[in-house]
Each structure stands twice: as C-alpha cells, then as structure tokens.
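Support reply, case 0932

Customer input (verbatim):
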Amino acid sequence: MNHYTSDNFTVTESVGFAINKARNLLVTEIDAELKDLDITAQQMGILLSMRQDIASTPFELSTLLGIDTGLMTRMLDKLETKGLLQRSRSLEDRRVVNLKLTKKGEAVADHLPDRVPVVLNKRLKKFTKAEFHELRRLLFKFLED
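Our regenerated output:
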C-alpha cells in the first residue's frame, strides 16, 4: 500500500521527517545528559552494546547501530583514546578486531541505565502506557524489512 504520492507528499508532514526530527531531539538531550561522563549518545550505544554483550566487534556494532564502518572506526578511536575500550586482534582470524571495555569503560557504562531513561521518560511523559507500547510496536514494525 502506498501512503504517499507526489500529490500528497510534503516534507514536514512525512513520517521520515518526524522520525529524523525525533532522533535529533533525543540525541541532543541525551548528549546533554551524558556531558559530565564525557561521552555522546552515539558513544553510549557502543558502550551499552558492549556492556550488555550484544556486540563485541566493530562490524557487529556497525550493523547493530546502523553506523558506517568509517564513522565507527573514528568513534572507537575516540573511546580508546578516552581509555574506555581496548582493541585486540582475534587469534583465530587476524582480520577480526575484538573490543573490550576497560574498567573505566565499564564504570561509565554502568551509569547509563540510570541516566538515559530520564531523558526518554521526559519525552514520553504525555504518553499513556498503551500509547507507549503502541509507539514501540509501530516503530519496530517500521524497521522490519
């Protein structure tokens, strides 16, 4: 089913516009919340994914977070420089880089589940429980292939 046509499409009324604007708003607010931890919203995704054992290589993180490999490399460089993670080559396949949080990285990641929900809950405060569940359901449906 086509919901948009050239006759009814306007950029500011499109789903893509709303999703992008919502994402930008969340990133700005999460960045502000994490400023004292010296990490960004994008870096948060990396640290949490690693802390929760969802991803442990740059490729896995790129795929999970939808970040191209070049940007992922730069972000990992910054996190490594900050002493939050370390890289090592796989012993089985030298082409594979494994990532591990340092003690400092684990400490920062441990703060995130307490901090990020504050931002999300502020944005969701006007939603009923049913609306919240419906929003999540619809967003995940939108993300399906």
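We compared this against your earlier run and they match. Two observations from our side: The two ends are 15 Å apart (CA to CA). The chain has one domain: 11-143. Please reopen the case if you see a mismatch on your end.
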